[in-house]
TrEMBL record:
<dbReference type="Pfam" id="PF00005">
    <property type="entry name" value="ABC_tran"/>
</dbReference>
<dbReference type="InterPro" id="IPR003593">
    <property type="entry name" value="AAA+_ATPase"/>
</dbReference>
<dbReference type="GO" id="GO:0035435">
    <property type="term" value="P:phosphate ion transmembrane transport"/>
</dbReference>
<dbReference type="InterPro" id="IPR005670">
    <property type="entry name" value="PstB-like"/>
</dbReference>
<dbReference type="GO" id="GO:0005524">
    <property type="term" value="F:ATP binding"/>
</dbReference>
<dbReference type="InterPro" id="IPR017871">
    <property type="entry name" value="ABC_transporter-like_CS"/>
</dbReference>
<protein>
    <submittedName>
        <fullName>Phosphate ABC transporter ATP-binding protein</fullName>
    </submittedName>
</protein>
<feature type="domain" description="ABC transporter">
    <location>
        <begin position="9"/>
        <end position="251"/>
    </location>
</feature>
<keyword id="KW-0813">Transport</keyword>
<keyword id="KW-0547">Nucleotide-binding</keyword>
<dbReference type="InterPro" id="IPR003439">
    <property type="entry name" value="ABC_transporter-like_ATP-bd"/>
</dbReference>
<dbReference type="InterPro" id="IPR027417">
    <property type="entry name" value="P-loop_NTPase"/>
</dbReference>
<dbReference type="GO" id="GO:0005315">
    <property type="term" value="F:phosphate transmembrane transporter activity"/>
</dbReference>
<dbReference type="GO" id="GO:0016020">
    <property type="term" value="C:membrane"/>
</dbReference>
<dbReference type="GO" id="GO:0016887">
    <property type="term" value="F:ATP hydrolysis activity"/>
</dbReference>
<keyword id="KW-0592">Phosphate transport</keyword>
<keyword id="KW-0067">ATP-binding</keyword>
């Protein structure tokens, strides 16, 4: 694997237990800046669990125990002096089901930046809302109805609204957990095109069950099986010339 890229998230010897269930085993992986990394593997192999470790979302589950390190820009986000809210601001997340707040399109985007005092109400906030919606590829479709409910949009538009809401707080990393699995093919295509645009500014880690999607958008792909990272490499290598038999069996549809 080429090493010309900057490491944005350096995960080392990460283990996670849900009670007695050892769900992630000693995961060590460098995730690269301004790249899209796809996490693939059969259901229950730990993809979402791993993704949620990157912004400390698993801290919200009381039975979880984690050890190991997730180092972002030279600082382990699990160090005692790190506040998890600040981690979640730097590492945004987009979920499988579009989940806009029960608020207007405008307020969905403006809510967090206003709450965190990143912008003032009025012109400054208006500009941020417009920029975020533009960057999420949604502005032209919603600019005349910003005060209508976010839930009045189509599923694909709602997902782009959720992406606009995520980028409005200026994260450095965006985690996506099967961001297109609830969408039709045309909306999926728009989100994939958007991901390729967004990686110029952000580091993206995405979970997908869709092999074609991983092949289309991801620079790097990590294959998980039973809580272990089996293989991680440039996407083309994973799909064309995997070195592990399990990877080959999975991508050729022999299991999963
Ligand atoms: N909140 C939770 N509490 C307890 N166990 C959990 C929880 N979430 C996941 N697990 C367990 O952790 C393991 C990994 O699950 P995870 O959801 O990370 O897998 P996944 O690869 O994302 O699966 P899928 O593709 O089906 O979404 C499974 O054994 C699952 O049952």
């Amino acid at each position: 694997m080429s090493n010309e890229n900057n490491i944005k998230i350096d995960v080392s010897e990460l283990n996670l237990w849900y009670g007695d269930n050892h769900a992630l085993h000693n995961i060590t992986v460098p995730l690269y800046e301004n790249k899209i990394t796809a996490l693939i593997g059969p259901s229950g192999c730990g993809k979402s669990t791993f993704l949620r470790c990157l912004n400390r979302m698993n801290d919200l589950i009381s039975t979880v125990k984690i050890d190991g390190a997730v180092v972002i820009d030279n600082k382990n986000v699990y160090d005692k002096d790190v506040d998890e809210v600040s981690v979640r601001k730097r590492v945004g997340m987009v979920f499988q089901q579009p989940n806009p707040f029960p608020k207007s399109i405008y307020d969905n985007v403006a809510y967090a930046p206003l709450k965190h005092h990143q912008v003032r109400k009025g012109k400054e906030c208006d500009e941020l809302v417009e920029k975020s919606l533009r960057d999420a590829g949604l502005w032209e479709e919603v600019k005349d109805k910003l005060h209508e409910p976010g839930t009045s949009l189509s599923g694909g538009q709602q997902q782009r609204l959720c992406i606009a809401r995520t980028i409005a707080v200026k994260p450095e990393i965006i985690l996506m957990d099967e961001p297109t699995s609830a969408l039709d093919p045309i909306s999926t295509e728009k989100i994939e095109a958007l991901m390729l645009e967004l990686k110029k500014k952000y580091t993206i880690i995405t979970v997908t069950h869709n092999m074609q999607q991983a092949a289309r958008v991801a620079d790097y792909t990590a294959f998980f099986h039973l809580g272990k990272l089996i293989e991680y490499d440039e996407t083309e290598t994973i799909f064309v010339n995997p070195s592990n038999k399990k990877t080959e069996d999975y991508i050729t549809g022999r299991f999963g």
